[in-house]
């Protein structure tokens, strides 16, 4: 039971959750910078509470994060020590275009990512670059309304052209938008959208989604023009929805929940809006305004591969139960067959095999698992070690499930990057102590700590997994 020799093992991060250096070398302010920790975070990221500027009463985790802006050489060296074949990271838009609508890019921002890619190259690590991981320059939000505005397509196009040209020969794999379906659940984080009183939220979200979908297709077009070897992927937050019971009502509701996410990938991978979405949008009066060429662009420039995050499956029930699992942006009924993490996320390794099969059956394109992992509190013991067997167990079971999907079911899988190979700021909660890493970072929820890095037990385990190409999981 092995993987292809060229299977891409590695880890994934996002600029806003690890870089810090929020105002260095000309970087502009972004939506992700002004998301606080604590009770207001959820209202901010979902677009219900407008906090466009720093408020002195709040702590903002992204300002410093884990300061990878200054530590990236050492951090990438540690990734190399584990044997990473791939490193998924994202480009901070506001380092390249601080406001977002400038004519010329910020050279210092571009140079920073040159250095990252040079470090990767040194160790034979293939970069996998997310162009937009939840970030949007604050200037574009204040002056244009974020992705609700069609002009965003042009600004994003400029960003893509700039990075595709600059990093030609250094990067091969690109992802246009992280978790594009997150626009429905966290529209401020996903698309820089904050709602006004009385607005039709669904209409705004689907209009913004249309803009991102067209922007993604245009990016794919430009990538192919600039370098025919570029591989461009879409990315969504996956995890199949299970009906709670065999009551057809539950089954139908679960189908609808899945379609909410598939909708985006149907457009990006098959090149057209699916009928179920067209019909529903028409019924609800939320069909997006489209321009004449849009349909054609979406049809012509579909993605090369489909990337997704998988943390858990979902569960859907239609009876009036308030038995809802907390702690996740995706509302889900509690699944009695699964155990739950400290943050209330279900743990379902077989669900990964199920999800891989569902996605592959639907699209028959190469897949890439670009996020998977367990967010937990870690303890440092008296010997200064972190014995994170729970993390090893979680990952082992998920890797087994993925191995079955590849070897027994024939799913075409390019690679696997765990989320947060080094501890970083949680996107959902803003906490530092929801840790995913093989590498511990000394920093707490209030921003205290030395930022020192420390290898956990899982570090040595993952090294062995990669060395053996997934055959030694003990
Ligand atoms: P955190 C919710 C549900 C599924 C994926 O999440 C999600 C979220 C956001 O909370 O986001 C992805 O940090 C995302 C990463 C994020 C990771 O999952 O809330 O792409 O940026 O950090 C884990 O535990």
In terms of per-residue confidence, which ranges show pLDDT below 50 for 5 or more consecutive residues? none
Q: Count of helices?
A: 15
Order of strands, main sheet, comes to 1-2-3-4-5-7-13-14
The CATH homologous superfamily: Glycosidases
Mean pLDDT: 97
Strand content: 5-15%
Shape: globular
Report the major sheet: 8 strands, parallel, barrel
Radius of gyration: 21 Å
Overall domain count: 1
Give the number of DSSP strands.
16
Terminus-to-terminus distance: 14 Å
CATH topology: TIM Barrel
Q: What is the top-level CATH class?
A: Alpha Beta
- Proper CATH architecture: Alpha-Beta Barrel
Question: Structural class of the secondary elements?
Answer: alpha/beta
**Helical amount:** 25-40%
Name the ligand types: 2-(hydroxymethyl)phenyl 6-O-phosphono-beta-D-glucopyranoside
Can you tag this structure with a few keywords?
474 residues; alpha/beta; 8-stranded parallel β-barrel; two-stranded parallel ribbon; 15 helices; 16 strands; GH; EC 3.2.1.86
Tell me the layout of helices and strands.
Blueprint: E1 8-12, H1 15-18, H2 41-45, H3 68-81, E2 86-90, H4 93-96, H5 107-122, E3 126-132, H6 138-144, H7 151-166, E4 173-177, H8 187-191, H9 201-226, E5 231-237, E6 241-243, H10 248-270, H11 275-284, H12 294-300, E7 305-309, E8 314-316, E9 324-325, E10 332-333, E11 339-340, E12 346-347, H13 349-363, E13 367-371, H14 389-407, E14 413-419, E15 439-441, E16 453-455, H15 457-467
Parallel strand pairs: 1-2, 1-14, 2-3, 3-4, 4-5, 5-7, 6-8, 7-13, 13-14
Antiparallel strand pairs: 9-10, 11-12, 15-16
Helix pairs in contact: 3-5, 7-9, 9-12, 13-14
Bound molecules: 2-(hydroxymethyl)phenyl 6-O-phosphono-beta-D-glucopyranoside.
EC number: 3.2.1.86
Pfam family, one: Glyco_hydro_1
Family: Belongs to the glycosyl hydrolase 1 family.
């Amino acid at each position: 039971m092995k993987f292809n020799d060229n299977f891409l093992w590695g880890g994934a991060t996002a600029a806003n959750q690890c870089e810090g250096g929020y105002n260095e070398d000309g970087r502009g302010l972004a939506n992700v910078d002004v998301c606080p920790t604590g009770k207001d975070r959820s209202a901010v990221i979902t677009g219900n509470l407008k906090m466009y500027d720093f408020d002195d009463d709040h702590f903002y985790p992204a300002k410093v994060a884990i300061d990878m802006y200054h530590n990236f050489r050492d951090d990438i060296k540690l990734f190399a020590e584990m044997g990473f074949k791939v490193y998924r990271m994202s480009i901070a838009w506001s380092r390249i275009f601080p406001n977002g609508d400038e004519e010329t890019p910020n050279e210092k921002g571009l140079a920073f990512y040159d250095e990252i890619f040079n470090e990767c190259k040194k160790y034979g690590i293939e970069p996998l670059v997310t162009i937009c991981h939840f970030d949007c320059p604050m200037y574009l939000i204040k002056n244009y309304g974020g992705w609700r505005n069609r002009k965003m397509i042009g600004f994003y196009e400029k960003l893509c052209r700039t990075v595709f040209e600059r990093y030609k020969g250094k990067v091969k794999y690109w992802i246009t938008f992280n978790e594009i379906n997150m626009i429905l659940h966290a529209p401020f984080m996903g698309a820089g959208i904050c709602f006004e009183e009385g607005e039709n939220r669904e209409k705004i979200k689907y209009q913004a989604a249309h803009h991102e979908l067209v922007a993604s297709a245009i990016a794919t077009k430009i990538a192919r023009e600039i370098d025919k070897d570029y591989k461009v992927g879409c990315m969504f937050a996956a995890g199949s929805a299970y009906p709670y019971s065999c009551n057809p009502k539950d089954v139908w509701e679960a189908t609808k929940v899945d379609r909410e996410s598939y909708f985006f990938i149907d457009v990006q991978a098959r090149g057209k809006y699916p009928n179920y979405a067209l019909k529903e949008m028409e019924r609800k009066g939320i069909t997006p305004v489209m321009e004449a060429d849009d349909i054609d662009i979406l049809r012509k420039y579909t993605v090369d591969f489909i990337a997704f995050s998988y943390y858990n499956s979902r569960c859907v029930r239609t009876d009036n139960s308030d038995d809802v699992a907390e702690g996740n942006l995706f509302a889900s009924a509690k699944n009695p067959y699964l155990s739950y993490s400290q943050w209330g996320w279900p743990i379902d390794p077989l669900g990964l095999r199920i999800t891989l099969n569902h996605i592959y059956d639907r699209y028959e394109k190469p897949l890439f698992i670009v996020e998977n992992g367990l967010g937990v509190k870690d303890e440092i013991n008296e010997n200064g070690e972190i014995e994170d067997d729970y993390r090893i167990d979680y990952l082992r079971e998920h890797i087994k499930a993925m191995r079955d999907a590849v070897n027994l079911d024939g799913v075409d899988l390019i690679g696997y990057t765990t989320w947060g190979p080094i501890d970083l700021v949680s996107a959902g909660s803003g906490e530092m102590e929801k840790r995913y890493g093989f590498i511990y970072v000394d920093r707490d929820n209030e921003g205290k700590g030395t930022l020192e890095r420390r290898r956990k037990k899982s570090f040595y385990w993952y090294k062995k997994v990669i060395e053996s190409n997934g055959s030694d999981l003990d």
